[in-house]
Amino acid sequence: MEATTITTDIRSINEKIERESAFIDLLVSEMNKNIVGQRYMIDRLLIGLLGQGHILLEGVPGLAKTLAINTLSKAVHGSFSRIQFTPDLLPADVVGTMIYNIKENDFTIKKGPIFANFVLADEINRAPAKVQSALLEAMQEKQVTIGETTHKLQKPFLVMATQNPVEQEGTYPLPEAQMDRFMLKTVIDYPKLEEERLVMRQNLFGKTATINPVVSVEQILRAQETVKEVYMDEKIEKYILDIIFATRYPEQFKLDSLKPFISYGASPRGSINLALAAKCYAFIKRRGYVIPEDVRAVVIDVLRHRIGITYEAEAENVTSVDIINKIVNEIQVP
After folding, report:
1. Is the CB of residue 98 less than 8 Å from the CB of residue 146?
2. Among 179, 160, 169, which Cα is nearest to 65's?
3. Secondary structure in 3-state letters for 12-67
């Protein structure tokens, strides 16, 4: 009897998710007017948006990172702001400050660019630690304190930070604890030849499409709540926890060879975000339940920046992605 009830529940959740996620295809096709290919990046943006998380994008300049979040903000009918991080930036340039108003003989609050639905933090590793922590605090708390007043940030609130992996001169690398606050770290590669041909033609002929707002902010907020209802079986939960614990104690999972390469494993934020990202991925695929493939699809982006590697790993050119792949291939799939 209980099994029948669960089956009925899953069926009703599945129908609800299919109904609520109908806007995903509409949103993606609208974004594809301006963005050629890069479906991987678009999916990660949507996971961040639906999971109320933030994304760290790494890739060489010119891979449409700025264009992607700008296009998303237009398609969702949300506000967009871009902060170009530089070494002379101050926290007040990000969150805002108090300005003295001579007419009223009083201080007024001038809000910073962080007060938007979609915030692009361009080259986050170019700004000093004070500015990085001001941004990351706003991301974590979803609020900003200016003077003595605390202001809630708009919903939905998505920060997409970018960093250029090529240049290391004059940069301030994000500390591990700060990196952990990003739900996903996505590495973007060059487009395929045919895609780049299309990009080249579009730019030569100046063909930039007008992006129409196809999804309302209310729909996104409703979807963020609906994502939580996606069904996750206990076996999937155990699968996620096995992966996380294997990053901490590889010897318990017959992965002794990885022990010398890992300095620290994923934190509890890793398991929370892996479960949430898997639910978001299932939602994007218009499914009301999580399958192991959903977990495997997002595991690298969720854990790549949460595993510390040792000097020995660096010497042998072993990356955190290599470690994740080894773990995922070894852990038994439910």
Report:
1. yes
2. 160
3. HHHHHHHHHCCHHHHHHHHHCCCCCCCHHHHHHHHHHHHCCCCEEEECCCCCCHHH
pLDDT in tens, 208-261: 778 888 888 888 889 889 898 888 989 999 999 999 999 999 998 888 888 989
pLDDT at 198: 81
Please list the alpha-helical segments (H only) found in the chain: 2-20, 23-31, 39-50, 65-76, 91-95, 129-141, 176-179, 193-204, 217-227, 234-248, 268-284, 292-303, 311-315, 320-330
Residue 191 phi/psi, 5-degree rounding, is -70, 165
How far out from the chain centre does Cα 163 lie?
Answer: 14
Is 305 in contact with 185 (CB distance < 8 Å)? Answer: yes
pLDDT digits (tens, 9 = 90+) for 100-142: 777 777 777 788 889 988 888 888 888 888 888 888 888 888 8
pTM of the entire predicted model: 0.87
What does the block give as tokens for 119? 């915030």
Question: Of all helices (H) and strands (E), which one includes residue 88?
Answer: none
User: C-alpha angle with apex 226: 222 to 22, nearest 5 degrees?
Assistant: 75
Topology classification of domain 224-330: Helicase, Ruva Protein; domain 3 (1.10.8)
pLDDT per residue as tens digits for the range 175-211: 777 788 899 998 887 878 887 788 788 777 776 778 8
> What's the CATH number for 23-190?
3.40.50.300
Amino acid, single-letter form, for residue 30: E
Q: Which residue has the tokens 């970018």?
A: 162
Which amino acid is it at 185? K
Q: Give domain limits for the chain.
A: 23-190, 224-330
